[in-house]
Amino acid sequence: EGHTSWVLRMVEWPPGFLASGSADKTVRVWSKDGGCRKVLSGHTGSVTSLAVWEQRLCSGSFDTTVRVWSSADFTCLFTLTHTDTVWCTVDWQNLLVTGANDGTIRFWDEHGKCLRTISKAHNMHVSATCALGQRFVTGGGTALIVWEADFD
After folding, report:
1. Would you say the pTM of this structure is higher than 0.90?
2. Per 3-state DSSP, what percentage of the chain is helix, strand, and coil (rounded to 5)?
């Protein structure tokens, strides 16, 4: 009942449960007793990132997409698209921030609308993101960049 390939990411979701993303292209939701409660399918590449955003689970993938999953019924609410592998996702200021292999960072609202794209934010891939109060940090290659953004 477990994954059939490497587990690459884990996050608590919904509260009290564990979600795991794998190279087998699935996300699995595990109950407190260790049983697999649900298998979330739809990605066509390895699941490379997981984040909780507005009580929803976001799974980024090698397939260039981020799927946003409902905590109520575990269905995919919508799919966000990058042009390259999505390595990282983070909830920041009620927005979802995603980073990709082509060095781009995208900012999404709760309806799945891309509000802003920063192209070539890093010379290499954007492999890590972190919310830091009013700022957010991205990592790519050997560099960290601290960002401040105004979306008004």
Report:
1. yes
2. 0, 55, 45
